[in-house]
Amino acid sequence: MSKYYDVPMLQEPVWTREVALYFFLGGLSAGAYLISCTHADARIARKAARLAAGAALPCAPLLIADLGDPKRFLNMLRIWKPGSPMNLGSWILTTYTPLCMLQAVKPVKIPQIAGIPLAIGLAGYTGVLLSTTSNPLWCKNPWLGPLFSASAMHSACSALLLTEQDPPLQKLDAVSTAAELAALSAFQKLPDTPALAAGLILPVALSLCKRPKLAAAVALLGGLVLRYQMVMGGKKAVADSVGKT
User: Fold this and answer.
1) Which residues sit opposite 239 in a β-bridge?
2) Residue 216: its pLDDT value, please?
3) How far is CA 107 from the centre of its chain?
4) pLDDT (tens digit, 9 = 90+) per residue, 189-238?
5) CA 51 – CA 104 distance, rounded (Å)
6) Closest to 196 (Cα-Cα) out of 174, 218, 175, 216
7) 100-109 residues labelled b (16+ CB within 10 A) or e (exposed)
8) Who's near 171: CB < 8 A, 6+ residues apart?
9) CA–CA separation, 116 and 128 (whole Å)
10) What is the rounded distance in angstroms from the CA atom of residue 33 to the CA atom of residue 51?
């Protein structure tokens, strides 16, 4: 049954472009934070920490802008429900952001370590959140979390490679690209999956052609396009599903 008293059983997601941008910046920040905690070169680690902080700063305002009222965000923090990806994500963002700022200003070992699981959660929870909905594009798909996590690390590597030619970063970028492509191939639902896959393969081709900065820029744009297509694709999936009934 697709309708109940002429009301569609499936409702189109009310999420806007702000959510897609939040998904992208949150992933970018999380990936950069993890690099800042693990990279052997102190200079690159500092640059990654600053990138993580800069990307994290707009996340809460973007989320609040989508909710329309700051009180809605605060209300999610009144309770602790780790079984709810939305509630858990709100807590992750709230606790991760100050640790991320501290990492950018003056790294301290214990807060730095505490931020690592939060960054891992921020990188992938948005994909898990989508998979728990009834939306036909996202519903019960186990690959959304891994896809967003791999894309988060890929985006962070790409952003840093815009100004750095660092072999360890390049290796991490290659691994995260392969992981993202594998997860996207397993997802197999987006109508523009071939175009998104090309967005992953094109940077590889540009790197082989000795155009590393252009490759990094294309890959970074691809991370944003992935989140945008995922959010907007969810709207289209509901419209198509309702239109068929």
Assistant:
1) none
2) 95
3) 24
4) 766 677 677 778 888 888 888 899 999 999 999 999 999 989 888 777 76
5) 8
6) 218
7) bebbbeebee
8) none
9) 18
10) 8
Instruction: Domains for the chain: give ranges and CATH numbers.
Output: 13-243 (1.20.1630.10)
E runs forming strands in the chain: 3-4, 7-8
Residue-level pLDDT at 132? 87
The two three-digit tokens of residue 76, written as one number:
């999610």
Mean pLDDT, contiguous 10-residue spans, the chain (245 residues): 46 75 97 97 97 96 80 79 82 95 94 96 93 83 94 97 95 95 84 72 87 93 92 74 53
The helix (H) or strand (E) run that includes residue 97 is: helix 85-105
Distance from C-alpha of 218 to C-alpha of 202, rounded to nearest angstrom: 8
- Identify the three-state secondary structure at position 245: coil
Task: Give Rg (Cα) of the chain.
Answer: 18
